[in-house]
Amino acid sequence: EAVSVFSPYAMWLSFRAGMIFSTSSDEFFLGLAKGSVLMELWHGMPLKKIGFDDNVSKGNGTFLHKFGLEMNKRFFRWKSFMYMKNCWTLTSSDFFVQFLQTAFDLPKERILPVGLPRTDALFSCKKESLVEKVRIEFPGCRIVLYMPTFRTGVWSGKPFNPFTADYGFNADEFSDFLEKENIVLLYKPHFVDLELGQNLSSEKRFIFIDDESYSELYNFAGQVDMLMTDYSSIYFDFIATKKPVVLLPFDLDEYLKTSRAHYFEYSEIEGAKAKNWQEFYRILEEKKYSSVSEETRKKFAEYLDGKCCERLWEKIMELSR
User: Fold this and answer.
1) What does the pLDDT look like over 150-198, one tens digit per residue?
2) Residue 92: which H helix or E strand, with range?
């Protein structure tokens, strides 16, 4: 049952809850949940700096921002899980523990090495109707899922559009490429950029994806043949499938300056990288892509194996004793 966050009933539920599960910082009114265990599932392992470490987006790092953080920590702890005393979170590998500690101000023992429950769906056998339909309509095709992350410029009315001449995009060239390579490209923008992509909707091999297009996103993602992304945390999840990923850091320098700083160098991420659409075409035409090495998979996705829910449940049972 879903209830409004600030309704009296929601507050009553928070007050009574022994454990609260969250995936972001604003799903609950936490002012009455002081005795609860908060299990912060979060929504992605960090390449880009998050939480207390983010000093780029929304004016973070300024004196007023730091002052606001301190005031929230002292007087408004209910505003975010990051101020909760009994907060826990999860990691997909030991590599990310160092960043989660500083981002959420958590001791190492509060970061559980159990993997991420949502990624279990990557290994599900449930059929997604759209994927099945595409494979019937385009026999032998490669289904490529494109999921770029959002840029903070969208908050000022500047959503990210990768389908522009700035990145070497030409609609006719794009259409010819998809046809020649027998590719169907599924475009799933970040929800803040959902209005984009409609300009290509007439191209039969380009399919705009929204929440109505699938029954479960990660079940859907697990059934495609390849992922395209840029700085999104889905990279760290998808590599557990051992399928190829092609990276499109079209605006890397601008992104680092105006959206988010990174915890480590982007060059450390394994995968074929394209700076524009022409480079992307060449990578696929010449098959200069592959699944990541076993070393990289273990570095970023060691605990992603379809059994994360089971391990988390075992940990919850330990905490409940």
Assistant:
1) 887 655 556 788 999 999 999 999 999 999 999 999 999 877 666 655 5
2) none
Residue among 116, 114, 111, 147 at smallest CA distance from 235: 147
Tell how far CA 51 is from the center of its chain: 15
Can you tell me whether residue 286 is helix, strand or coil?
A: coil
C-alpha distances (whole Å) from 271 to each of 21, 126, 229, 239, 283 are: 33, 28, 11, 10, 11
Question: Please, how many CA atoms are within 13 Å of residue 108, restricted to the half-sphere of its CB?
Answer: 6
Q: Which CATH superfamily is domain 8-116+305-320 in?
A: CDP-glycerol glycerophosphotransferase, N-terminal domain (3.40.50.11820)
Q: What secondary structure, in 3-state letters, does 235-262 show? A: HHHHHHHCCCEEECCCCHHHHHHHCCCE
With a CB cutoff of 8 Å and minimum separation 6, the contacts of 281 are 173, 177
Domains 8-116+305-320 and 121-301 share a fold: yes
Which helix (H) or strand (E) element contains residue 185?
Answer: strand 183-187
Residue 22 is given by DSSP the state E
In angstroms, the CA 58 to CA 67 distance is: 14
pLDDT-flagged residues of the chain (< 70): 25-26, 56-83, 153-158, 192-202
| CATH H-level superfamily of 121-301 | CDP-glycerol glycerophosphotransferase, C-terminal domain (3.40.50.12580)
